[in-house]
């Protein structure tokens, strides 16, 4: 039960509290490859020189992931920043459910297995083939394939998306080749038939999010379901050939279909069972809709097979999508936004399309919609559908334009915004573009500073995880790994580095210590925001970064 927060009135400001989330901006461990440090960021530098700040943990167990070897990501990061506590997240919940066997005892798994056995049909798996553990993990897939064989399923087809984003940019064959051998070994006794059926880069097909580019989903449907597209004898051949022809890194590789004698080996047909084995929700909702919607307006599916479809998790708890899922998601409750609504605090949330769902849905504990229509406003700035390295500034200026207007109008008590640059451009692996993205964002921080100073507000600057701070692959000795031509190997995945928490408070009057608490995680952000809004945080919230004088 959420009740109004207790007022403390220890900090009073005329202007709003503005939470700025610099997505993907951390403190680099290495000088070489730290695009944040390389960028000219006079405004950010000034904040560090003149404001109290501390470092926050944004990966591993600090955000509910299985181990501290697991990098943070935008989903779990916004969950933590929105709810003020640490919940076990999808990666941990799924791994535990599979290891314990609990998932196989569930009604959904049993239903899909029975369907494939009764119909003598195929069990299909669609998802990201890597051990990045952000959207999926290859070990989960292997365990499910083994269990399916054990339970009597005769035919399995895997529609495998190339990662190159949460793992090395050209690491696909490190996963595809051993996995193909794994499937072959399971099929060697002649009682079981398992193959890779199709694939493509995750930024080209299937895994769109926030309705940004439904054409990606169309391509995925045509590739996985219909078996349409360029044919190859194996996934290995497809990856090798398409790399040579396009020069693309894994995440941008075109789609392909595995075929034998001109016939696709794994189209999805009536009576089949389908599992989307990605556990993260944002890039799973659209392909799920394509399977579940009776009428789909976004593209022509051409043929809609009648299948038993399930997601690894429930990707949207409010909309109950998908209809069937294998593992229950974390039940996140009593979020910052809900408490503030109960306390009558007016809130404004904004980002561009790529992170709009993070600053709303994920921040609100995986909840769609608002807690109070009268107290909240959400604004989405449409993202450009172009490679982010070609527009590294993205929409940070447009976001800032709107935020400054809202600050000047004085309607809102709390404003939160997400600048996607460090993460979205960071994932491209193009160092110069990432530097540019940081400098573009820094200009906007300067604009926000002026607006907040005029209104007597407070700005809290933080991030959900690192990325732009670690753009090169490094060896165990810290040396930069290089390509055959001597260029550094780009790192496109998130980092394990801490992120900043900076307090810009131009009206500071000695109410709290300028020495901020250390050793905390980003789940301390909600309590901090509550304090600056004049409230005590709930007792079970992770503590604020500030201590009152």
Which terms summarize this structure?
549 residues, alpha/beta, 9-stranded mixed beta sheet, 7-stranded mixed beta sheet, 16 strands, 15% strand
Report on the biggest sheet. Answer: 9 strands, mixed
As a whole number of angstroms, the C-alpha radius of gyration is 24 Å
Poorly predicted runs: none
Strand segment count: 16
User: How would you state the average pLDDT, rounded?
Assistant: 96
Q: Which overall shape is indicated by the principal axes computed on the Cα atoms?
A: globular
How many helix segments? 17
Amino- and carboxy-terminal Cα gap: 31 Å
Strand composition percent: 15-25%
In helices, the fraction of residues equals 25-40%
Structural class: alpha/beta
Description of the structure:
The strands form 2 sheets. Strands 3, 4, 5, 6, 7, 8, 9, 10 and 11 form a 9-stranded mixed β-sheet that branches. This protein has a 7-stranded mixed β-sheet with strand order 2-16-15-1-14-12-13, sandwiched between helices. The chain has helices at about 35-40, 40-50, 75-85, 90-100, 100-105, 105-120, 140-150, 170-185, 215-225, 235-245, 285-290, 335-340, 355-360, 395-410, 420-425, 430-455, 525-530, and strands spanning about 15-20, 55, 120-130, 155-160, 195-200, 230, 255-260, 265, 275, 310-315, 325, 345-350, 375-380, 415-420, 460, 500-505. The model has no long low-confidence stretch (mean pLDDT about 95). With about 550 residues, the chain is an alpha/beta fold. The radius of gyration is 24 Å and the shape is globular. It is built from 17 helices and 16 strands. Helix 7 runs parallel beside helix 8 (about 170-185) and helix 14 runs parallel beside helix 16 (about 430-455). The longest helix is centred in the last third of the chain and has 25 residues, at about 430-455. The chain starts with 16 loop residues before the first strand and ends in a 17-residue tail after the last helix.
